[in-house]
Amino acid sequence: MVKEIERAGFPVVHMCTVVPISLTVGANRIIPTVAIPYPLGNPALTAVDEKELRRKLVKKALKALETPVTEQTVF
Known about the structure:
There is one protein chain. The protein is of the alpha/beta class and 75 residues long. The protein has one domain (2-74). Helices cover 44% and strands 13% of the residues. Strand 1, helix 2 and strand 2 (29-32) form a beta-alpha-beta unit. The chain is globular and about 40 Å long. The two termini are 20 Å apart.
């Protein structure tokens, strides 16, 4: 799906916990996330710390969207 959306002209960031799978499916911009059951969070953190973790991941994804890439890139 990621490749088809990019083919239509929209940049995509694939946020995932298993980077080799993203590389296999051909995602161009890849952001590693936390863990399989909690890709964008960590229930062991306080609510404030978890919010900051999520904010950092989203900011990283937005930066990746702004970055021109010519090949698969893991940020």
